[in-house]
């Protein structure tokens, strides 16, 4: 559905990334995060004053976030925690871990057993339903009844509503977008122009054929491993921002037919030979390497992939000083080709996570004050831009951009984002778990014709309705 305040979100997408020093312990035992983007190191600005209270001084807060492991904001989080602790005299017991299904299960289990943290940075969609239904977190409106300034620096239209009761609970920090990365070296070799804001699927298919004829692979994707981005956009191309977040009741209804058409569109691209020859057996890492090594032209992925591409252009992925700027110049990011009523400039994206204050902390007078202070600090106008970088935020007043703080690909991403006409959430985030198996895990059978797309879609819908 078309996002309210999209202009504000797009403006907020172009923000300055800055990092300080220090560190707080974090649990990094979980699997590596999907977000690879390494943060740019620049001089740290003076942090905003946190709300202080004599009652809150010396309080230990239990905090759980996804800012851990290889997450590009892990160090930003440690720095901000250290600064808040130094300013308030409080301490933080940090049990953060990288975001995966194990992490989600752990959080849900903690709420069920009464072991939830005081402050939680977590998803604001269906993953949060169980603890919101149980009354285990406090709404922003309820917090504002006692702390009127809480999260008032945010555009409320961009703070997600709960799927349970329509209330707002999670104060967002940084968002995401999904777009199409381009290896211009491959395009040049095939005589293909850099795609722009008016790119269509018909033009895309014509360009893919030129790329094949030149001896390259058009699309870097592992359909047998991570078909997620193509699944999402293929469906989106048969719908519009107005109805993309609707889940069909049947494969035969209007939305269901769009899903079936999307699966068949992927099947057509497979039959035309536009995916890697081993797309059904390759891993996502392998097809990403094809893209960064100049063997494939197009890669649909998220804003977090900027960091992975930059790292691939460094002789030492851990050392930004080893960046090969000439190699990085070969990469760009643009819009996913559009079709029908979806324009290329209508992207998947949004603000899918935020800070919750739990009822457990709220019911403790000292922890209540500290929790409000902590979340206010972590979501302030000064701290948020360090996390949002080139992605998105809900700030009412985004800072001006200092391009010297960004690498060339980040700057290209900002330029691309300035032309976006809408950001719509990912419907796969609502259609979760076993529902996605027939079309996610079953993508190889669909594209090879072993399973009819309509049957696969219907099987997923049946699973969804049975939940």
Radius of gyration: 22 Å
CATH superfamily of the largest domain: Periplasmic binding protein-like II
Largest sheet: 6 strands, mixed
Secondary-structure class: alpha/beta
Straight-line N-to-C gap? 24 Å
* CATH fold assignment of the largest domain: D-Maltodextrin-Binding Protein, domain 2
What share of residues are in beta strands?
Answer: 5-15%
Gross geometry: globular
Number of helices: 19
Which second-level CATH architecture of the largest domain applies?
Answer: 3-Layer(aba) Sandwich
Task: Give the low-confidence spans.
Answer: 1-56
CATH class of the largest domain: Alpha Beta
What is the tally of beta strands? 11
Tally of structural domains: 2
> Helical residue percent?
25-40%
What is the succession of H and E elements? Answer: HEHEHEHHEEHHEHHHEHHEEEHHHHEHHH
Q: Overall pLDDT, averaged?
A: 87
């Amino acid at each position: 559905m078309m996002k309210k305040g999209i202009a504000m979100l797009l403006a907020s997408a172009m923000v300055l990334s800055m990092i300080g020093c220090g560190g707080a312990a974090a649990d990094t035992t979980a699997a590596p995060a999907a977000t690879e983007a390494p943060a740019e190191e620049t001089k740290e600005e003076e942090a905003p004053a946190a709300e202080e209270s004599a009652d809150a001084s010396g309080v230990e807060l239990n905090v759980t976030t996804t800012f851990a492991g290889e997450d590009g904001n892990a160090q930003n989080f440690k720095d901000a925690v250290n600064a808040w602790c130094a300013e308030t005299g409080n301490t933080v017991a940090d049990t953060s871990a990288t975001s995966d299904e194990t992490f989600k299960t752990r959080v849900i289990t903690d709420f069920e057993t009464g072991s939830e943290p005081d402050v939680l940075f977590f998803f604001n969609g269906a993953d949060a339903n169980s603890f919101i239904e149980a009354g285990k977190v406090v709404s922003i409106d309820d917090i504002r009844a006692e702390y009127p300034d809480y999260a008032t620096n945010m555009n409320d239209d961009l703070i997600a509503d709960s799927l349970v009761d329509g209330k707002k609970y999670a104060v967002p920090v940084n968002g995401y977008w999904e777009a199409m990365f381009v290896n211009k070296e491959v395009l040049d070799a095939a005589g293909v122009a850099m795609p722009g804001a008016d790119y269509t699927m018909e033009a895309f298919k014509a360009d893919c054929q030129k790329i094949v004829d030149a001896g390259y692979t058009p699309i870097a994707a592992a359909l047998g491993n991570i078909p997620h981005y193509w699944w999402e956009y293929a469906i989106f191309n048969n719908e519009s921002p107005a109805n993309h977040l609707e889940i069909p009741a049947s494969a035969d209804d209007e939305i269901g037919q769009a899903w079936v058409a999307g699966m068949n569109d992927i099947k057509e691209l497979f039959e035309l030979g536009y995916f890697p020859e081993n797309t059904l057996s390759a891993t996502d890492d392998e097809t990403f390497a094809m893209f960064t090594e100049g063997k494939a032209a197009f890669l649909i992925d998220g804003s977090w992939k900027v960091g992975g591409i930059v790292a691939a252009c460094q002789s030492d992925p851990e050392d930004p000083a080893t960046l090969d700027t000439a190699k990085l110049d070969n990469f760009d990011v643009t819009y996913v080709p559009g079709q029908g009523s979806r324009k290329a400039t209508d992207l998947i994206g949004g603000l899918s996570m935020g800070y919750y204050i739990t009822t457990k902390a709220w019911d403790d007078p000292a922890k209540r004050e500290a929790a409000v202070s902590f979340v206010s600090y972590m979501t302030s106008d000064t701290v948020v831009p360090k996390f949002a970088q080139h992605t998105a935020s809900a700030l009412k007043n985004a800072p001006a951009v200092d391009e010297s703080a960004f690498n060339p690909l980040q700057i290209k991403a900002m330029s691309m984002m300035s032309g976006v006409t809408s950001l719509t959430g990912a419907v796969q985030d609502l259609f979760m778990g076993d529902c996605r198996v027939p079309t996610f895990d079953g993508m190889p059978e669909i594209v090879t014709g072993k399973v009819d797309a309509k049957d696969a879609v219907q099987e997923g819908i049946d699973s969804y309705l049975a939940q």
